[in-house]
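Hi everyone,

Forwarding the result from last night's run.
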Amino acid sequence: MLQTALARHHDVEVALTSRRGHAMRLARGAAATGTNCVVVLGGDGTLNEAANGLVGTDCALAALPGGSTNVFARTIGTPDDPLQAADTVLAALDAGAVRRVGLGEVGGRYFLFHCGVGFDAAVVEQVERRGSLKRYAGHPLFVYAGFATWFRHYDRTAPAMSVRHRTGGVDDAYLTIVLNTDPYTYLGSRPLSLAPEATLDRGLVVVALRTMKFRPLIRLIGGLVTGRDLHEDPGLYRAIDLEEIEVVGHRPVPHQLDGDHLGTVDALNFRWRPDALNLVMPISEGASTPGEHVSDRW
């Protein structure tokens, strides 16, 4: 049905991914053959791979929700229903609503919405160990994995890393999130906002958690769920609109990129890369096309 909807006014070729990294190669190949747009039906990990294949090309990326959370697709305003999302993508393409946007980059890989270092990456690792449950019990599984990681799978005895950038930093972070967009994630239909300043049009935002004590952590989680302003939370360090960030572990630390666990590292160097990717932007009802058009013909 999705293919039929997309093929109404466009030539469509369907390709299925079969392994990690396959979406990147497919997207890169599509761009090399002059394809105008790669439409991805999948979760955030598949979308990230496709974006990495398209960075620096003229081929645009469009997102259809096909995973358990679909953080990036929801962040840019894509409907949760794949068929409705396909109609939204078609309307955006017809209107030329394609923007050149900035991405974060670390270790030669780009990220659409965030990279987590430390505790949240350890949570993602626990979720991926139960991958067969992720699609059917995604949000409850993340909640369970969060508590299990806090109690049994993460060293809370001492800070895990230092965070440095041009204007400052901290040495006592247990968890560091480098954001390219906000919200950080979703719990059901509720966005969990860490840094409203994080947008596709400006530099990166870094948020570091400086305590793993139970009560401050529960207060922070409560603030995320209720939408409370966290700018004055004493357990958080925040810096905005950054072009470069360095995270150095006091010990090897896990990290995840757009929700995919990538293992442990000793240090990470982040860069903001402006104008990295052509992105199809959904147009909300009654709104004009967002941002500047890259092309008016697709």
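DSSP finds nine helices and 14 strands in the chain.

Cheers,
N.
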